[in-house]
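User: UDP-galactose/UDP-glucose transporter 3. Structure?
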Amino acid sequence: MLSLRFIVSGGTQRPALGMNSWGTIYNMVFMFGWPHASGFEAVQFCKQHLEAAWDIFLYCLCGAVGQNFIFLTISRFGSLTNTTRKFVSIVVSSLLSGNPLSAKQWGSVAMVFFGLSFQIYLKWSKLQRFQKKRKSM
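Assistant: Predicted structure:
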């Protein structure tokens, strides 16, 4: 069994391994843990439709590769970069797809924008204080 210390102490691969391992365990229990679970039907479907099994495999493989890039980005640049990317992605996709946001949704966008801006400011001011301390030494 994976311990939390093993997962946290590594680079980008160990957290991804931990998340995928626990996700697999939970999914296996949910899909096959009781007599009327849907996992047995899914396996039968994939046996009958091999192209669907192949598509599912490729989807899982792409997800695992993408997850490695996400963990790499977080470890190098911090979680603020990932949050900003998600925020911009949601707003741009809403604008490009022509799905207008409601007033409440725009209020949420504004709250996230100001929250991100405040986090950036705090990170910047902390960096400025650290540089001033280094210069004074």
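The mean pLDDT is 83. Residues 103-136 form the longest helix (34 residues).
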